[in-house]
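Q: I have two molecules that I believe assemble together. Could you output structure tokens for the complex as a whole instead of separate predictions?
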Amino acid sequence: MKKKWGILGALFTFLALGQAVKDFPALGDPQQPASIHVVPRYVEKTIEETYVPNAITSIIADYRGYDTNYETTVIFTAGLSVMMILGGALKWRKNGKT
Amino acid sequence: MEEKWEDLIIETISRILIPFIQTYALYVLAHGHSSPGGGFQGGCIYAASLILLFLLYGPRGLEGNFPIKFLFILSALGVGVSYAGIGALCMLFGKNFLDYAALNNLLPHGPVEARYYGIAMVETGVQFTVMCTMALIFLKLLQEERTSV
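A: Yes, here they are, computed for all two components at once.
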């Protein structure tokens, strides 16, 4: 019974998300919103502003440096969480509390 | 996972492969400026070589060589000192956070080289964090497996 509701929920979410696909801009459309806001500046001014030969590196490490910083922090937090959860579990087991 | 993996073929092939995987990881890191690559990808490839090593010898065989505390401290240093430290250093010279041109005051070759070395150091920090976190999670799960069975 529980399984059936789970499958129904997944199916409903799939259909609801599928509805949104219709509103996407066409693939490779040069006038889509993502391509006309800041991308022209990245493409045209990477060399004069950052002196990095690769536009992707200039975006990752220079224009969006904060973003990459906190992405790295997220990975560090994942390691921290594993340390806390597994380390704590081991300590409980040693004390006899399961 | 208790015993050492006794298989001549697997051990020999892994011992041949691991240095090449690690060299390739460092290449991906160092060449990240002008081709796809960088700290995240290089760190993952390096961590793959370490995980191959753990699978080969088991956690007990490498007990002293990779203490979890050391990996954890190294991953904290990667994000805290090498990334945020470079950003704070740029602020110290009166520019914005992570504006690498400020490193011009430290390095002798001008703003272009300053940006080059700034990005290289930041990517190295990312590589250390990713590599140590991957290896740490794998080692910690192996230890958990060992104590619970």
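A: One point stands out. Chain A touches chain B through 29 residues (CB under 8 Å).
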